[in-house]
Amino acid sequence: MGVVLVTCALIFLNDKVLCAQRSSTMNLPGLWEFPGGKIEKGESPEECLVREIKEELAITIKVLGALKPNDHAYSKGIVIRLLPYVCIWQCGEVKLLEHQQIKWVEKGNLNSLNWAPADIPIVNDLSENWNIIQKQLVDYTTES
């Protein structure tokens, strides 16, 4: 069984996380996800995320650290290993180059979105660890 490594960015700004709705031209149209993409040969997960977010949203991010990955089988013989990373928005204006829309979502509203199946465990992990992540973000921005 093949495993495809896919990164996703949990991009934080002002105590909210960026969530993206898949467009009609993408697989799983209309479902919500954390943006990211497949790791290319010779690319680290962090490099992949920076590239993918630039390609999908036209913004620059800083990758701070990883959360627990999730394996999900969308079709027979292929497993997606979703590698989530906590990130912060550095610069640029969001442009919807692939997604239908984005929302900046607070912790309490995460479960109101119709998530892609592979992202649901990431959402649950994020909800459980939200306060710890927020403290780390405050500590990071204070140090910078």
UniProtKB/TrEMBL annotation:
A molecular function (GO) term: metal ion binding
Gene3D superfamilies to which the protein is assigned, alphabetical: Nucleoside Triphosphate Pyrophosphohydrolase
Keywords, in A-Z order: DNA damage, DNA repair, DNA replication, Hydrolase, Magnesium, Metal-binding, Mutator protein
Enzyme Commission numbers on file: 3.6.1.55
CDD domains (UniProt xref): NUDIX_MutT_NudA_like
Family: Belongs to the Nudix hydrolase family.
Protein name: 8-oxo-dGTP diphosphatase
Enzyme class: hydrolase
Organism taxonomic ancestry: Bacteria, Pseudomonadati, Bacteroidota, Cytophagia, Cytophagales
Nudix hydrolase domain ranges (all copies): 1-128
GO BP, sorted A to Z: DNA repair; DNA replication
Co-factor requirement: Mg(2+)
Pfam families, A to Z: NUDIX
Catalytic activity: 8-oxo-dGTP + H2O = 8-oxo-dGMP + diphosphate + H(+); 8-oxo-GTP + H2O = 8-oxo-GMP + diphosphate + H(+)
Keyword Metal-binding: yes
Record organism: Algoriphagus locisalis
